[in-house]
Amino acid sequence: MERTSLETKTSNSNTDFLSLNPSTLEVIGKVENTSHEEIDVIIEKAKKAQKRWAARPDAERKEILLQVAEALQTHSKHLAEWITREQGKPLNGPGANFEMQACVGWTQVPASLDLPEEVVFEDETRKDILYRNPIGVVAAIAPWNWPLMIAIWQIIPSLRMGNAVVIKPSEYTTYCSLEMIKVINSVLPEDILQVVTGKGEVGGYLTSHPEIGKIMFTGSIATGKKVIEASANNMARLTLECGGNDAGIILPGLEIAKHIENIFWGAFLNMGQTCACLKRLYVHEDDYEKVVEALAGYSSNIPMGNGADEAVVLGPIQNKMQYDKIQDLIRDAESTGADFLFKGQKPDLEGYFIPVTLVGNVDNGDRIVDEEQFGPVLPIIKYKTVEEAINKANNSENGLGASVWSDHPDEAQKVAAQLEAGTVWINQHGAIHPFVPFGGAKQSGYGVEFGIEGLKAVTTPKVISTKK
Question: Is 350 tagged catalytic?
Fold first, then answer.
């Protein structure tokens, strides 16, 4: 079976990219740009393979994907080690091993779901049946923060519904992505899943290609808008998840001790490098001190370092671009008089480490609040009334997720109903599930993933209407 590898690609040395271990800054290897000519050939192969794949019985496709899940499980230790080496998240805690188990689960669930034809109307004169057909070739643009898990979100539902996939992993996490694709392709028929590598220009050419029928993208708002522009060339259907600046509201009187672990990991999962992390925390002024004290106390006991160390559960920022952005936001907060309520211990390593940092005396209008930090820095904002907290939480261009924290379920439900986000969690944050649709509002993107709705998103509806 043909394998795509970095060694087989031609490249322009002026645009090659070095992949680094973010904990040690050691060079893992050179990431080369797939040429336009190579992309054309890859897409042509995918088109032909897709016809053969879609013609297989549905039950056969499901069985093959369940075999993919088994292969991912078998190789999960190897792939988790690659994630830690290249992405940086620790093996343990909610880290690389956790990501691999998510890859297995998010493969098993789409393989188990059915999307049969539906009689949408019938009377004595006619019968109308809605079918869900594959779109064709799907272009998947995967990010660097959860490089394998999010790639699975894009690959598996697309394959499940009879499409072929051409995926471009982030240039920051190419090697671990290629390792996973090798595992998947040890099970799949030839050419159904293919990979291109390189920087943004490669993704731009891929997404604008006339033979692409669907684009699945996870990344920044700015790049998402470029994907939208690229799709004008081919009218490709879009699923865009463009990040978030998720707000959490702690309602007055919360018994903080029983929620502190969930609040911490809601904010600092993957060092805060998660689109649906808690990135702005609104706390009633009467509860402010106890919330800060509880968060600082919990944070002080969480070990940070090289994720290959089994005792570590917090790792580095994945890349220098993101590291510099977070440092810039910290400097801006310092210059505008913010209070640094807690700052963890930075490990004595060369990597891109930023300790967990809690920031106070800030409000909407400050950059540290208005801009998605995508790192381990949490602004904590006081409010006087719940209405004020709701208004400030909604005052954002983002609308991916939000959360409400309360010991009173009815009050939490009332607040959740008023928050402008694709998902609002109560007493949890970022708790996604493979059966539950997930997508954003506002500039966090459009379209949904997961569950039956996610399968529908990688199909085209077709009605056959018969006169009786």
Answer: no
